[in-house]
Amino acid sequence: MDTGDLAWILMSTALVVFMVPGLALFYGGMVRAKNVGNMLMMNMASVAIVPILWVLFTYSLGNNPNENKTGFLGGELIGNFDVAGLSGISGDELVFVAFFMTFAAITPALISGAVADRMKFSSWVVFMTLWSIIVYTPVTYWVYTGWHTELDPHALDFAGGTAIHINAGVAALVVALLLGKRKGLGNEDMSPHNRSMLLIGTGILWFGWFGFNAGSAGAADGIAAQALINTFVAGSAGMVGWVGVEWIKDGKATVLGTASGLVAGLVAITPAAGFVTTTSAIIFGLVAGPICYFAVQLKERLGYDDSLDVVGIHGVGGIVGGLLLGLLSSLDVNEGGAAGGADLLLSQIIAMGSVIAYSAIATLIIALAIKATMGLRVSEEEEFAGLDLSIHGEPIYASDHGAFLDLSEKADESTTVG
User: Fold this and answer.
1) pLDDT in tens, 351-388
2) pLDDT tens-digit series, residues 275-311
3) Domains in the chain, please, with CATH?
4) Which of 115, 59, 117 is nearest to 85 (CA)?
5) Quick check: 409 and 157 in contact, CB under 8 A?
6) Beta bridge partners of 377
7) Is the pLDDT of residue 410 over 60?
8) CB 201 within 8 A of CB 5
9) pLDDT exceeds 60 at position 405
10) How many degrees, rounded to 5, is the angle at CA 366 between CA 27 and CA 372?
11) Cα(353)–Cα(251) distance, integer angstroms
12) pTM of the predicted model as reported, rounded to 2 decimal places
C-alpha cells in the first residue's frame, strides 16, 4: 500500500475502536444511575471478546472467499477456514483485518441498548459471542463478498448500513420482545440519568464515525473525502430533522433529541457515504431524523420495550439509508457503485430483506436456547436494586455506596443462614 493510504487506515481503525467506549458513554448516560456500570460492561465485553474470535476464525469465515466461490451453495453464503488464526496474512493486509475487526466489535454492542436494565450479564456475554459467530459473520460475508455482490446491479453498503445497523436493529427487537418490559415502565421515571455523559458519548461516536465511513474507502483519496463530508452533513441534518419535528410536536428542543437525531443521520448515511453527493447526504439526514423520531414513538403503541431506541434509530435508520441509496447513488461520485433507480432499489430491498429475515430467525434461536438453559433476565430483586450493585458489586456513584454496603450485608446474612 501507499504509505499515506496505510496511515489513513491505521488512523481510521483507531477512530472506530474509540467508538466502543463512546457508545458505552452514550448508552450509559441514557440509563438510570443504578445501571450505568452494567451498560459500560456490556459494551466493553464486546470489544474484549469479538476481536479474539475475529483473529481465531470469524475473519476467515466472514471475509475469505472460497476459490472461484465453490463449496457450500457456490461459496456465496460463508467463507472458509483457510486464513484462520490469520495464517498467511502479514504486512499491509493486517491493517484491513484490524479495520474490519472494529466493525465486528461494535455491532453486537449496539444491541445492548435494547436490553438495558434487565438482562443477565452472563447471558449477555454468551449471547453476544454466539451472535457474532452465527449472525454477524455470515451476514458480513453476504454483503461484501457473497451473494449480495452478485445481484444485478449489485447491492451497495459502503460502511455497514445493512451488515451492522439493520442487522443489530433486528436482533435488538427480537431480544427485547423475549425479555419483556422493564419493571415499573410507565410508572417510574426512566429518563436519562446524565445528559452530559450522553452528549459526550455522542461526540465521541461522531468523531469515530469519520473513521468508520471515510476509512471504508480503503485509501486516502477523493472517495474518502466524499464519505467524510457526507458523514458530517448527514449528522447535522439528522439533528435538524429530529429536533425540528420534536420542537413542533412537543414544543421543546431537547438534548436527548439532538443526540438521537445526530445518530439517526449518521446511521442513514453509513451505507451511502461513498456513493452519493453532499447534497444527497443532507437529504439522508433530513429524512432519517423525522422518520426515526416517529419510529421511536411507535414502540409504546406496539407494546415492546426497546430501552434505548436501538430499533427505531439503528434498525429503521439503516433501512432508510439503504432505500435512499437505491434512489440517489451516483456513478459520478464512485464508479465502483451503481446508478440510482428502480433496479438498484430492488437490489437494495432484496439484500436488506434477506438480512432482516436471517437476523430475526437466527437471533430468536440463539436467545431461546439461552433462555431455556441460563435464563435471559435477572430476578425482580436484582432489577429493583440495580444491576451495578446486584450483578457487578460495584457502585458507579459515591451516593450508591451505602446501598452497596446494605446489599452486601444482606448477601452475607443470606449466606450465613443458608
Assistant:
1) 999 999 999 999 999 999 999 999 999 999 999 999 99
2) 999 999 999 999 999 999 999 999 989 999 999 999 9
3) 3-377 (1.10.3430.10)
4) 59
5) no
6) 119
7) no
8) no
9) no
10) 105
11) 37
12) 0.93
Q: Give me the half-sphere count of Cα atoms (radius 13 Å) on the Cβ side of residue 365.
A: 9
Beta bridge partners of 119: 377
Cell of 189: 421515571
Look at 55-64, 76-85, 281-290 and tell me which has the smallest mean pLDDT: 76-85
Q: Of 194, 185, 139, 135, whose CA–CA distance to 161 is shortest?
A: 139
Grid cell digits, residue 33: 444511575
Query: What is the dihedral sign for C-alpha 161, 98, 231, 257?
Result: positive
Spatial separation of the C-alpha atoms in residues 2 and 235, rounded to whole Å: 30
End-to-end Cα, the chain, rounded Å: 65
161-179: per-residue pLDDT in tens?
A: 999 999 999 999 999 999 9
Residue 16 C-alpha cell reads as 472506530
pLDDT of residue 417: 40
AA letter at 156: L
Is 142:88 a contact under the CB 8 Å cutoff? no
The three three-digit cell numbers of residue 3, written as one number: 504509505
Single-letter amino acid code for the residue at 332: D
- Quote the CA–CA distance of 259 and 227 in Å, as a whole number: 21
Q: How far is CA 11 from CA 6, 68, 209, 217, in A?
A: 9, 33, 12, 13
* 90 burial level (CB within 10 Å; 0-12, 13-18, 19+): exposed
